[in-house]
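Entry 14. Structure prediction run on the chain below.
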Amino acid sequence: MPEIQPAEGDTLLRVDGESPKPRTPRLSAANPKEAIASVASSWMSRRFLGGCAVLFPMVVTVYITWWFLTFFDNFFSPVYESVFGFHVFGLGFVTSMAFILMTGVFVSSWLGGLALQLGEWIIKKLPLVKHIYSAAKQVSAAVNPANETAQSFRECVIIRHPRHGEYAFGFITGHTRLQSEKGDMSLYSVYVPTNHIYVGDVFLMGEVDIIKPNLSVREGLEIVVSVGMALPPNLRAL
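Output returned:
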């Protein structure tokens, strides 16, 4: 008599009317080894990612610091090697910092200001160099604490952008008054970075649409550069 195969989903009944007990799959000899390997792999993955999370900021900090020291040290180290015949790492960096300080002191005097104006006049006459110098000067003017012109970041603010219920960090860069038949309106130019600090949009907004938090310009820049990871746990509107 041919054996009848059950269809999918059917339950076989024994001759005595009792349903057979479900069979328990036997564990092969390879299953314990696979379980141990899976646990070890998961444990190693978590520990490896934890190590990356700890070492990444340290490595980045050390690398940027070392690059900064080496970059400024290379300005005057060749001078010491050619004149005195020795090289001491860090001596060129100290000399560079002293040179920058003395440049700031010299430019603040009337003679230094005159020399700076003469140098800028010569640079602005060059075809290609004048555009590079102009862009670099605007960048330095924005972060210069001694600059009080409209190009500098005056305050860090929060605005409602781009939709209702969403907010964005911005920086006040200027102020103007819009005259109309209904009266004058006070407007602030708010710079909102979109990709990097110096790539963004400028909005003219009224004072009622601007929220001024307890953040300095430096803290606002840190939040933007860190893509929001430097955001403090609490903000307070002034």
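Residues 30-83 form the longest helix (54 residues).
Filed with the rest of this week's runs.
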